[in-house]
Structure formats: structure tokens, C-alpha cells
């Protein structure tokens, strides 16, 4: 059994003739502590899948086994607990709380769980010790994404879900953020899942799942990932 086993998962939008499958009998597995990338063009169904894995949405068909438990069967309360305790989310647009400082944003996340890491230490670990009392508007895009990563990591999540985490960042800053995400899996023992349309990023991953038109095309394990610093695009 893998850490994530998605089995024949489907998600439909609309009804009757206008119904479309956003995910069509999707199956794949990701092992614990892997850094996985789900890659595919716009509209392929990536965000739908990520939302389902994060317990923000439920599939119409299939099983979503996380550590052996089918979260597709969870009720609202179980999904809320799952999102709060097991998952760290990182979005393209950071989603920080504007009137809270770096430290306060991270502290707020720490309060959600019983055994968080030390917020100050995590802020230091993402390289933002010198920005600890700044508000999001005073930070660069890359710094804001680091706050978002610290906010996710402070909960010690088992699974870090990242939706186009470098989509709003310039090339060099994007590389630094990806490098930090890769380190996160090593330092914090998390399983990391990144979705992106940027195929150039895939050599850095331990596993690449290629989706297109709602279906999984390939799921490949990469024995020798390339450090992100060595990847050019
Ligand atoms: N709430 C919704 N209602 C209706 N259709 C939806 C909804 N969410 C997604 N879809 C459709 O499902 C398909 C998959 O969308 P999804 O957002 O998962 O793709 P994606 O691969 O993440 O694309 P992008 O890279 O552009 O974000 C698309 O055709 C989209 O229009």
C-alpha cells in the first residue's frame, strides 16, 4: 500500500448532454515522502484532483485512499479534521492574511493543531527571520510564498499540496521556492504533491504523473531526480 492510492476516481460537472468529466477514472499511487508532480495542460483536471486530495471537494466515483483510509467516504466533519491536521496547502496567489505579520500568519496555522512546530523556528527555516514582523504587502512575491510554505509546514502536515506554487513568480524566485519545497520533504518528512502545467519542472520530481483530458497518461518513478538548480527552462 502506498501513502496515496487513487482508484478509479471520477468527477463530473454539469448534467445530461452538457456533462463533462473533469477527472475520468483516474488511478495512481504516490509513496510516503515522495516529491510528486502532476503535470498537464490547462483544463486537464489537475485542480479538481488536488481539491479532492485535499478534502476540499469529493469525487463522484472511486476511492481516495490516504494512508489506507478512503477519504471519499468522509463526512464534512471528518473532512474538516483531515484538512486541518493532515494537509498543508500552498497556492499560486499565497492567500496570506493581509493584516497579520509573517509570524502571526504562521502562528495562526499553528493554533489549528495539537502539536505544531515552533512558528519562529519555521519562519527562520524558510529564510525569513529578517521579515518576521513584516506584513504581506511589505514582502516580495517570493517572500510571501515562503510565508505560505512556513504556514503550511508549521502544522507538520503529512501531505503538502501545492497548486502552481511558482505561477506568479519570476524564474529565479520560482527556482528558490521549488528548492525549498523539495527540502521540506527532506527536513519535515512530508509527502509533497505539486501540480503544474510546466513540463520543464518534471525532472526534479521523484514521481511524475502526466494527465491530459481528465485521464492519467503515465505515472513514472524517477530514480535520479535532478536538483532544481540544474534545471533550465
Ligand atoms: N466548478 C466547476 N464547474 C464546472 N466545470 C468545472 C468546474 N471546475 C472545473 N471545471 C471543468 O473541469 C475541467 C478540469 O478543470 P481543472 O480546473 O481541474 O483543470 P486544470 O488542469 O487545473 O486547469 P488549469 O491548469 O487551467 O487550472 C475543465 O474543463 C473545467 O472547465
TrEMBL record:
It comes from the Bacteria. InterPro entries: AAA+_ATPase, ABC_transporter-like_ATP-bd, ABC_transporter-like_CS, MacB-like_ATP-bd, P-loop_NTPase. GO terms for biological process: amino acid transport. Signal peptide: none annotated. GO terms for molecular function: ATP binding; ATP hydrolysis activity; transmembrane transporter activity. PROSITE patterns: ABC_TRANSPORTER_1, ABC_TRANSPORTER_2. Pfam families: ABC_tran (PF00005). GO terms for cellular component: membrane protein complex. Keywords: Amino-acid transport, ATP-binding, Nucleotide-binding, Transport. SUPFAM superfamilies: P-loop containing nucleoside triphosphate hydrolases. Residues 4-233 form the ABC transporter domain. Coiled coil: none annotated. Belongs to the ABC transporter superfamily. This is Putative ABC transport system ATP-binding protein. It comes from Atopostipes suicloacalis DSM 15692.
Amino acid at each position: 500500500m502506498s501513502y496515496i492510492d487513487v482508484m478509479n476516481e471520477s468527477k463530473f460537472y454539469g448534467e445530461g448532454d452538457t456533462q463533462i468529466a473533469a477527472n475520468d477514472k483516474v488511478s495512481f499511487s504516490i509513496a510516503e515522502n515522495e516529491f510528486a508532480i502532476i503535470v498537464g495542460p490547462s483544463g486537464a483536471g489537475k485542480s479538481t484532483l488536488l481539491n479532492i486530495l485535499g478534502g476540499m471537494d469529493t469525487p463522484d466515483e472511486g476511492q481516495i485512499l490516504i494512508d489506507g483510509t478512503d477519504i471519499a467516504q468522509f463526512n464534512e466533519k471528518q473532512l474538516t479534521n483531515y484538512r486541518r491536521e493532515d494537509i498543508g496547502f500552498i497556492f499560486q496567489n499565497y492567500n496570506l492574511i493581509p493584516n497579520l505579520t509573517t509570524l502571526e500568519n504562521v502562528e495562526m496555522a499553528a493554533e489549528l493543531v495539537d502539536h505544531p512546530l515552533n512558528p519562529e523556528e519555521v519562519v527562520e527555516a524558510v529564510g525569513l527571520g529578517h521579515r518576521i514582523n513584516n506584513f504581506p504587502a511589505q514582502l516580495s512575491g517570493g517572500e510571501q510564498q515562503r510565508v505560505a510554505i512556513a504556514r503550511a509546514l508549521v502544522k507538520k502536515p503529512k501531505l503538502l499540496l501545492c497548486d502552481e506554487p511558482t505561477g506568479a513568480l519570476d524564474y529565479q524566485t520560482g527556482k528558490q521556492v521549488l528548492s525549498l519545497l523539495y527540502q521540506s520533504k527532506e527536513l519535515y518528512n512530508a509527502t509533497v504533491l505539486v501540480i503544474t502545467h510546466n513540463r520543464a519542472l518534471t525532472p526534479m520530481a521523484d514521481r511524475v504523473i502526466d494527465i491530459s483530458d481528465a485521464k492519467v497518461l503515465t505515472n513514472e518513478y524517477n530514480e535520479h531526480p535532478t536538483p532544481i538548480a540544474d534545471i533550465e527552462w
